[in-house]
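**Folding the chain**
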Amino acid sequence: MSETVERHEFGAEVGRLLDLVVHALYSDREIFLRELVANAADAMDRRRFEALTSAASALPPDAKVRIAPDKAARTLTVSDAGIGMSKEDLAQNLGTIARSGTRAFSQSLDAAKAEDRPSLIGQFGVGFYSAFMVADRVSVTSRRAGADEAWTWGSDGQGSYTLEASERPEPGTTIVLHLKADADEYLETYRLDHLVRKWADFITVPIAIVQDGKEESANQGTALWRKPKSEITPEQYEEFYRSVGMNFDKPWATLHWRAEGQLEFSALLFVPGMKPFQPIENERQSKVRLHVRRMFITDEAELLPTWLRFVQGVVDTEDLPLNVSREMLQSTPALARIRRAVTGRVLSELTTRAKDAEGFQGFWENFGPVLKEGIYEDHERRAEIAPVLRFRSSAVDSWTGLSDYVARMKDGQEAIYYLVSDDAEALKASPQLEGFRDRGLEVLLLSDHVDAFWPESLSRFEDKPLRSITQGGLDLSKFASEAGEAEGPEGIDALVAAIKAALADEVSDVRVTDRLVGSAVVLSAGTGGPDLQMQRLLRRAGRGAGGRPVLEINPRHPLIRALAERPESEVPAAAGTLLDLARIQDGDSPRDPAAFAKVVAAALAGTRNS
């Protein structure tokens, strides 16, 4: 070995950058191991490629990345059998980090949020220097494939580095980190094993952790999503599904494909077979994992929209740098194209599977409410999502889609009718349905938490408007009623006027309706305003009543007929009770529950005494 040691200065600006890397990124310093392993794996891939034209560059049979902690010496060694570096390579690659833009890096680092800072390492090409976050001295011994000589680069990260001739029996690179006093955790094999599995579990290069001369494999070494589907068994798919999503069931759907052309990526995605234990409504982000060249980058790239957040799996591409900041994730055109392609592929799969009504039922019951969010969140995909939606209905016992509803519409029916409530069971018996059932008009029954919002966003389906049956202005007179036309008793007009006067501060109107059969009263929303369910939500949110409702009365009902025959002076007291009855029927409480209870008790007592 030569005793001549060459000393080189990084330069003032580079010294500033090293200081930033070491101190500004300190809180997320585990990232250093990912960077070193990624560099080692890349070097081995480059040697494998070079071996295609040069036999001298062939990888040895036991080629792998080896990570060796030494507690006694307080060192952590990362070695590989990759392409290696010459003296010139070491000087250029490790001694000239300013070529990636030191000033730009410093400015971006100062401006970035704490959680974004680790991503800037890879963005500005200074991944190797993350080693100084855990080490106070680093040495790199490397021998270029095809060369006989080796060189050692060394630095304490204080502004200078050394180069000296060295020895290495085989081509490749060995990095020795002399760890800081507070970096003991990186001497523990269990900690190193965890980090490898977190960041590099699926890269194809084998990774081993070495302790006491024994090697333990630390990564699976097989990126399942990169293999042809014909080579993967159902059991392997299920095992990967359970590992990537911490699931215990079988996937309902498995999507595995590779996109090629201007945009290249591999994807392996799963739709779970059951709801997660954590309510999916509480989690508003997609957690599909983004890999770049098999290396895990993040599960916060939002590769799918929130309305597909139940989908799990991996998307792997080579069209992105190994590390990208959150700002880059939002603005990189390549990732935007990947998002569109992946979203389209998942939606296409759901559309195809929706044709199997029985098989689709389980999925819909698990994730239908989440998918509906796409109607009001995603204008671009709204028309594609709508045909996949499924509903309960007043006309059929099974789930039905909008296309099936349209096919069953009566002659002359111009709108798709729906009714929204919090209670699915209460919907089936709602008085709101009476007039529609009486005329053979189908109504979709909606009871999910999102159902008050999306119909207005969709507005129309197959050129048919969607109409809530609680909104005013619905005219059913063109459809024949089995119960006959609503002919009011004498005095009905005076009764309506008296009720309207008594409830002037609580309803916007009182009118006779032909859409009730067995009930005396029903509420509806004013024409042009939100329907009753939206009004309820507005009240609960403290955002006003959303408009006063309309009280509709059934002139054929015995109670209304009896009230029409009473003196007008008795109407005001009865008017409040009618309004409370209508509120209860729609799932609301009486205006004054105690007073309403007394009215009912008095009525029951009068019934017994009569």
The longest strand covers residues 135-143. Residues 98-102, 114-125 have pLDDT under 50 and may be disordered. The chain has three domains: 5-217, 224-360, 492-609. The domain at 224-360 is CATH 3.30.230.80 (Ribosomal Protein S5; domain 2).
